[in-house]
Design a protein that fits this description.
about 25% helix, Rossmann fold, OB fold (Dihydrolipoamide Acetyltransferase, E2P), 2 domains, alpha+beta, six-stranded mixed sheet, single chain
């Protein structure tokens, strides 16, 4: 079994800086878990603590049933792939894959079997006689992954392994790595993966579950769909999604005919179904709405609210357009299919246009804490 259990994990450096604050997390056997968050959120620090490359100040870390706080990296049953692939330049690919096994005294026949098995899995059998300088970035990345596979670890740790690749290659390698994880699981060799990235697209497309971190504290752990549809707080809501969710300070106001929200200098009456899920009194909140839940033209949904606005700019992305506009003084972004602009792209900056907000898809957060209401 290769489940990971982190209980009250802390990291404090000698200068007194506390990087990790009492992290509690259970990673299931065979799961693909992604750590994501902005720079400085301690995601790599947490990964290095699992690997044994950073000491643990407080708490308990278990791999399977073993408490591993005091174990050296080589005793933990893990393999790590770094951002810098660190291949030996004077060794061919075969030797790079075999080197660690030979150091461990693995029999020659088994070394050859493991190396060739990894090469088949990663479709790089034709690369075994090449030197690292003869490899592309994607090929070097596959060799680094293969070097981890031959160890047959209980846990794979990836520290931003795709960040040095161009956008097209990153996309193809995302698919390759997730396919590899499924292949290992289906072949009876389930691999527990902990993958660190700052790229929320990588997180959403690769992770079975995602752990969102901020300032060394877990904000939410859930499936990609759940994170997107029901973010636990305003930080998760703004971090997950591209373009990011429109989130703005607002004020709820009870009225004789229901509940209204003041967004900047504009007051909007809320549909009864939306108002029913919110506090009844007057209070400051944060209002959130994803760009795809704003349309440039009327929609049949009953919760769609027409709001006069001013056009600011358009970003053409191919099959869709990011439309930037303002409701009074509040900037907003809509994500509109390119075939549904219907002349919107002919309007000048500052032109008036009515946008339609699907208020039934809106998100509401506490003004002070950012927690979901």
């Amino acid at each position: 079994m290769a489940q990971l259990s982190l209980q009250k994990i802390e990291k404090t450096y000698p200068n007194g800086f506390k990087a990790v604050h009492g992290v509690d997390l259970d990673i299931r056997d065979g799961e693909f878990m992604v750590f994501v968050g902005p720079s400085g959120c301690a995601k790599s620090t947490l990964l290095r603590m699992i690997a044994g490359l950073e000491s643990i100040t407080g708490g308990e870390l278990r791999i399977g049933e073993r408490l591993v706080n005091g174990l050296a990296p080589k005793e933990r049953g893990i393999a790590m792939v770094f951002q810098n692939y660190a291949l030996y330049p004077h060794m061919k690919v075969y030797e790079n894959l075999a080197f660690g096994l030979r150091l461990a005294g693995t029999p020659k026949a088994e070394v050859d079997q493991r190396v060739r098995h990894a090469a088949r899995l990663l479709e790089m059998e034709h690369l075994l006689d090449r030197y690292p300088k003869q490899l592309s970035g994607g090929q070097a990345q596959r060799v680094a992954v293969g070097r981890a596979i031959v160890k047959k670890p209980e846990v794979f740790l990836f520290d931003e392994p795709l960040s040095n690749l161009d956008a097209k290659l990153r996309a193809s390698m995302r698919v390759r790595l997730t396919d590899l994880h499924r292949t290992l699981r289906e072949s009876g060799q389930p691999a527990t993966v902990v993958y660190v990235t700052h790229d929320q697209v990588e997180a959403m497309t690769m992770g079975e579950r995602i752990c969102v971190l901020k300032d060394g504290v877990i904000q939410q752990v859930d499936t990609p769909t759940a994170l997107y549809d029901r973010p636990a707080n305003a930080f998760v809501a703004s971090f997950i999604g591209s373009p990011e969710m429109n989130i703005h300070p607002a004020q709820l106001h009870p009225q004789a005919d229901g509940l209204a929200v003041q967004l900047g200098d504009v007051v909007l009456r809320l549909p009864d179904a939306v108002a029913a899920g919110l506090p009844a009194g007057s209070m400051p909140v944060q209002f959130g709405l994803r760009p795809e839940h704003i349309s440039a033209h009327p929609r049949p949904e009953g919760d769609s609210m027409a709001v006069p606005a001013q056009l600011r700019s358009l970003e053409h992305m191919g099959n869709e357009v990011f439309v930037h506009f303002s409701i009074g003084s509040v900037p907003m972004t809509a994500r509109v299919p390119a075939d549904q602009l219907h002349g919107l792209d002919q309007l000048q900056r500052g032109a008036a246009h009515v946008f339609h907000l699907q208020m039934g898809r809106s998100h509401w957060f506490d003004a002070a804490t950012g927690a979901r209401l």
